[in-house]
Write a structure and sequence with these properties.
Elements: H1 2-45, H2 50-53, E1 55-56, H3 59-65, H4 91-97, E2 131-132, E3 150-153, E4 158-164, E5 167-169, E6 174-176, E7 183-185, E8 196-201, H5 221-224, E9 231-235, E10 239-252, E11 264-272, E12 279-292
Parallel strand pairs: 4-7, 8-11
Antiparallel strand pairs: 1-10, 2-12, 3-4, 3-9, 5-6, 7-8, 9-10, 10-12, 11-12
């Protein structure tokens, strides 16, 4: 009897296995179609949020943001010189806040003082151990060709090494190598403290490349700078510089061009959006201070 049913049992088992394989292939196909559809939709929408990332400090607010004042128009950066006090421009804010019980809070917390954070109130500030400078100053006491070694952006939790990017030969063309778990500096652009624009690149995420996600929070700067100044700390072997963010933007990768400036600035770049990467988020910042290390 067992011999009689054996072929039937085997046939049923074979049919079940075949059905399972067919269902598995069909399920995989559905998943691939869904992924392809999502990717196509996401790619078609890529760049549609460019206006959300567009921010530039108004001309009438720029001097105050960068700590410039009439007294600081001729800052002397030689050793031993006193730091020029910043024109914080808080008189109007103070008068408006005088009748509010939370007038010592940062204004961004006024709508919900019960959950207020500890961010300082009073406008842009520079740490006491830094010397304020104008971004178009020429420094007499440091090497303007010193490479950047480290970058910090406390407001988004960035603290990472910086390396000079090399050139990769792709056969029919050349390109800069991608930064591998570091922030990469384009060697032909300005160095820290130097006049012109220094360009720095890092990954939003390392989904496929495994090259890190140091700039994963860089897109958040657009919202942060509408509430408080965002500072970028850039260090060489002997000096540390503070750059204050003045604008953000988003452009297509094909429209990205390295540009320069008349004063000392930096531009931070990462890919956008996640998984698509055909856009670039740009964050521009201007030099406001430095200190010896």
């Amino acid at each position: 009897m067992a011999k009689f049913f054996s072929p039937i049992t085997n046939a049923i088992r074979g049919k079940s296995t075949g059905l399972l394989a067919a269902y598995s292939v069909a399920g995989l196909g559905v998943i691939l179609i869904a992924v392809a559809a999502y990717y196509g939709y996401a790619r078609s929408r890529s760049g549609s949020d460019a206006d959300e990332f567009a921010y530039i400090t108004a001309d009438e607010s720029l001097d105050s943001l960068l700590g410039r004042s009439a007294e600081s128009s001729s800052i002397n950066t030689k050793e031993g010189s006193a730091a020029i006090p910043l024109d914080q421009g808080v008189t109007d804010l103070a008068s408006l806040a005088s009748g509010y019980p939370g007038n010592l809070l940062n204004p961004k917390y006024w709508d919900d003082p019960e959950w207020a954070g500890s961010d300082p109130y009073g406008g842009p500030t520079i740490p006491d151990d830094f010397v304020p400078v104008l971004s178009n100053d020429l420094f007499p006491d440091f090497d303007p060709n010193s490479d950047a070694r480290r970058i910090r952006i406390p407001s988004i939790g960035v603290d990472a090494p910086v390396e000079e990017l090399g050139i990769v030969d792709l056969g029919d063309q050349q390109a800069y190598e991608t930064p591998d778990n570091v922030v990469g500096h384009i060697p032909e652009t300005s160095h820290p403290g130097q006049q012109g624009s220094g360009w720095f690149f890092a990954h939003l995420e390392g989904f496929a490349s495994g090259e890190g996600n140091i700039f994963r929070h860089l897109p958040e700067i657009r919202d942060l700078i509408t509430q408080d100044p965002v500072d970028v700390y850039l260090s060489t072997d002997s000096l540390e510089f503070i750059y204050r963010v003045t604008s953000t933007s988003q452009i297509h990768e094909d429209d990205l061009r390295l540009s320069s400036a008349e004063d000392a600035q930096i531009t931070l770049v990462t890919c956008w959006p996640p998984r698509i990467y055909d856009q670039r988020i740009l964050v521009d910042a201007t030099l406001i201070a430095y200190r010896p290390l």
